[in-house]
């Protein structure tokens, strides 16, 4: 029986094509776990990074509490951007962050929102009548025992002396974006979200902004996770922290730390 064999020149050409194909295959971008309120802005930053010739980061958005628990459970990821300090602290205490990579990236404001067509008018001040404004409705916000936006909301309402009015009238959501959606769909007459979330959805309007003195500063720390093996993770972190990177978040309403 005659064996079929390729000419040496064909074999050489095939080998070069295979090798070239392997070299040309793009590597995967870093997996970034990010607070739900960063959806539009971080996608813009990822696009800008990819336009520089890097593999586009793989973005996963949810409440910071959910993402931090995923990291604690061993979920494979490279970067974490939290909407508060506490959940980043929790990972740092367990040595799940790469040393020297944690930095505050952005800042935000807390606002009271209503559906765009609502006529509710409220001035936020100590003892303001939030319960009466809700009527038979509920106040949408992130879960007040875990979601950062909910934690900030409870802190602010408590400091302003309003918490007893609304403690039994909450519509707790799994993330700040889920709370925003309840107001946008008219399922809740009022909600407490970040200023950037309100800007991202034209179906809601800002009724009032909470005084910064009523709650802890809203900061978004970023860090490389200690389990990361992606060579682009640190580069993308540095890009986000650069003047150009931070500038990409400004049109979405974020402040710089």
Task: Provide structural commentary.
It is built from eleven helices and ten strands. Helix 3 (64-72) runs parallel beside helix 4 and helix 10 (233-241) packs across helix 11 (243-249). The chain has a five-stranded mixed β-sheet. Strands 7-6-8-5-9 form a five-stranded mixed β-sheet, sandwiched between helices. Strand 1 (31-35), helix 2 (39-51) and strand 2 (58-62) form a beta-alpha-beta unit. 39% of the residues lie in helices and 20% in strands. With 257 residues, the protein is of the alpha/beta class. It has helices spanning 8-24, 39-51, 64-72, 85-93, 130-134, 148-159, 163-166, 176-184, 195-200, 233-241, 243-249; strands spanning 31-35, 58-62, 79-81, 103-108, 110-115, 139-142, 170-173, 190-194, 204-209, 218-224.
In short:
The protein is built from eleven helices and ten strands.
Observed structural traits:
257 residues, alpha/beta, D-Maltodextrin-Binding Protein, domain 2, 2 domains, five-stranded mixed β-sheet, 11 helices, 10 strands, disordered N terminus
SSE layout and pairings?
Elements: H1 8-24, E1 31-35, H2 39-51, E2 58-62, H3 64-72, E3 79-81, H4 85-93, E4 103-108, E5 110-115, H5 130-134, E6 139-142, H6 148-159, H7 163-166, E7 170-173, H8 176-184, E8 190-194, H9 195-200, E9 204-209, E10 218-224, H10 233-241, H11 243-249
Parallel strand pairs: 1-2, 1-3, 6-7, 6-8
Antiparallel strand pairs: 3-10, 4-10, 5-8, 5-9
Helix pairs in contact: 3-4, 10-11
């Amino acid at each position: 029986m005659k064996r079929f064999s390729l000419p040496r020149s064909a074999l050489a050409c095939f080998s070069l094509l295979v090798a070239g194909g392997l070299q040309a295959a793009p590597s995967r971008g870093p997996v970034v776990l990010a607070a739900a309120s960063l959806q539009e802005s971080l996608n813009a930053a990822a696009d800008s990074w990819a336009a520089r010739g890097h593999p586009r980061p793989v973005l996963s958005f949810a409440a910071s509490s959910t993402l931090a628990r995923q990291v604690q459970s061993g979920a494979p990821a490279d970067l974490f951007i939290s909407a508060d300090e506490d959940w980043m602290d929790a990972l740092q205490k367990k040595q799940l962050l790469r040393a020297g990579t944690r930095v505050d990236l952005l800042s935000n404001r807390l606002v009271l929102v209503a559906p765009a067509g609502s006529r509710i008018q409220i001035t936020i001040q100590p003892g303001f009548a939030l319960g009466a404004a809700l009527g038979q409705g509920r106040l949408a916000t992130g879960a007040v025992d875990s979601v950062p936006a909910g934690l900030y909301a409870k802190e602010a309402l408590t400091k302003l002396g309003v918490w007893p009015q609304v403690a039994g009238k909450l519509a707790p959501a799994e993330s700040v974006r889920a709370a925003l959606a309840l107001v946008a769909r008219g399922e809740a007459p009022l909600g407490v979200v970040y200023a950037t979330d309100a800007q991202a959805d034209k179906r809601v309007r800002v009724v009032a902004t909470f005084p910064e003195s009523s709650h802890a500063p809203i900061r978004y720390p970023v860090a490389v996770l200690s389990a990361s093996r992606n060579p682009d993770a640190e580069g993308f972190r540095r890009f986000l922290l650069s003047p150009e990177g931070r500038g990409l978040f400004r049109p979405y309403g974020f402040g710089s730390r």
